Amino acid sequence: MIYLDANATTPLLPEVLDQMLPWLRDGYANPSGSHRMAKQARAAIDRAREEVAALIGASPEEIVFTGGGTESVNTALCSLDHLTGSGTAVISAIEHSAVLRSVEHQKRPTRRVAVDEGGCLVLTDFEAALEGAAYVSLMAANNETGVIQPLIEAAAVARRRGLPVHTDAVQAAGKTPLDVRQLGVDLLSLSAHKFHGPKGVGLLYVRGGLDFKPMLLGGGQEAGRRSGTENTAGIVGMGAAAACALRYLSQHGEAALALMRDAFETKVLAGLSGVTMNGDTMGRLGNTSHLSFDGCEAAGLLILLDEAGVACSAGSACMTGKQKPSHVQLAMNIPEARAKSSLRFSFSRCNTPDEAMQAADILIESVKKLRRVQGSGVGPVVVYSP
Ligand SMILES: Cc1ncc(COP(=O)(O)O)c(C=O)c1O
After folding, report:
1. SS3 annotation, 151-163
2. Whose CA is nearest to atom 8 of ligand 1?
3. pTM higher than 0.85 for the full model?
4. Does residue 280 carry a pLDDT above 70?
5. What's CA 33's distance to the chain center, in Å?
6. Catalytic residue from among 244, 296, 318, 350
7. Residue 322: per-residue pLDDT
8. Domain boundary residue, one of 249, 275, 291
9. C-beta 68 within 6 A of ligand 1
10. Residues 278, 160 within the same domain
11. Mind listing the pLDDT tens digit for each residue in 170-214?
12. pLDDT value at residue 57
């Protein structure tokens, strides 16, 4: 199978697994204990804390390990909700459902700031939305289109007004450099499985000196900021994945991903008519390609690609199975037919340029096949037959 669904999740790197295994087999001691085995687990967690802090330019004390991206986002937004006065929550219209559902749950009103047709936050609208705001949450890069958001500029505007800023950087991590000081954010959420670490572990960066209210209460782990016995193996895996990501980025990994993705797109566009690239092609993560294919239903195309050995997604992974444009596509004003014919291909360091070319060939053949079938009036139901 050629796996082009890295924005949904990434393969665990072998070196990450190797570092986790001893903690799954023998390193089972509770890191809060006082004996030697416990202290070894504590030391491993502290090392991982330094590794993940280095990935985002933070201090280790500013890192809170969590149970994944969704938990980090919910914790950040709950804390902001409790600690800021009345006022609106300002978010973008293209946030992940972790942010959308979390702010919906709060009693305060929310303002969803528009994006342009390229899927990029409209800064003038954002600035206007800050009137009467209590806090801001903006994603660093979008999970469906890969479009990188003007976070540095937006956070600077919010900061000038004294508003705290959270960023959901789950999709940006490991694909593009991240530095919390340069971004100027107070809170930042990450998830290990999006950059070749294990699932079910994430982190929340909490800027030193920021008022913070924990969401999970209990034994007071993570300096009282997230109770619950630490997932030592998962945390060690996240640390190892962060160290690998940092090395990869310093060795021009971002450019290597973009080269592979661009070659894939060039081949697809040369081999097919009626293909539209969605999202600002100049400001995307190097790994993401969001394409629409005239006359093709995404659901049918996904099945043909799956049968031919290519794994990808329609819209975002969380939307799969729902036959309506995603909120991201609606915010970008993508016409309904184009939205329903769109697929997301997301590459990772585990793909090869050869695979990208093979996937392009398979995609071209699959689109031609589907167009023949759908054009014949038989309907897409034909693609469901073996
Ligand atoms: C932008 C974004 N935020 C948050 C999440 C949630 O992360 P997790 O799956 O680790 O809970 C995802 C996962 O798809 C995501 O893409």
Report:
1. HHHHHHHHHHCCC
2. 69
3. yes
4. yes
5. 34
6. 318
7. 53
8. 249
9. yes
10. no
11. 999 999 999 999 999 999 999 999 999 999 999 999 999 999 999
12. 98
Quick one: which of 187, 132, 114 has its CA closest to 155? 187
Mutate to test the pocket of ligand 1, among 191, 231, 285, 344 (most ligand atoms within 8 A of CB): 191
Residue type, 116: D
What's the CA angle centered on 207, arms 205 and 213, to 5 degrees? 80
Interval 76-121: pLDDT, tens: 999 999 999 999 999 999 999 999 999 999 999 999 999 999 999 9
Report the domain count for the chain: 2
Q: How many CB atoms lie within 10 A of CB 269?
A: 15
Quick one: 240 and 279 in the same domain?
A: no
Q: Whose CA is nearest to atom 9 of ligand 1?
A: 69
- Give the Å distance between the CA of 7 and the centre of ligand 1: 9
Measure 272 CA to ligand 1 centroid, in angstroms.
32
Residue 318 bears catalytic tag: yes
Residue finishing a domain among 205, 223, 249: 249
> What pLDDT score was predicted for residue 294?
95
Model confidence at 41: pLDDT above 70:
yes
